[in-house]
Design goal:
The protein has one domain. It is globular, with a radius of gyration of 12 Å. The longest helix has 15 residues. Helix 2 crosses helix 3 and helix 3 crosses helix 4. The protein is an all-alpha fold and 88 residues long. It is 75% helix and 0% strand.
Length: 88
Amino acid sequence: MNSIMQQLVNQKVNSLTAAELMQLSSQYQIPLNQKQAEGVIDVLREEHIDVGNQAQINRILQRLQTDVDPHVSTIVSQLLQQFGHFLS
């Protein structure tokens, strides 16, 4: 993975707001409501995210599935897939 690109993505993920997440979900036509977006941000804020750490990403997706909503975990996974080509 390009380390500069990974740093940029990490910075964006770690500073993401619920409003920005809503905008991304709308841009990629992935349904997400405000409460769900806030739940995602709450989970993301609990630790510094490293998108290169697949174990951490899997753990976060699992937490989203149990703590927020199984559908939300799928949505976040879909959003991550949209940017996967930058992370490979």
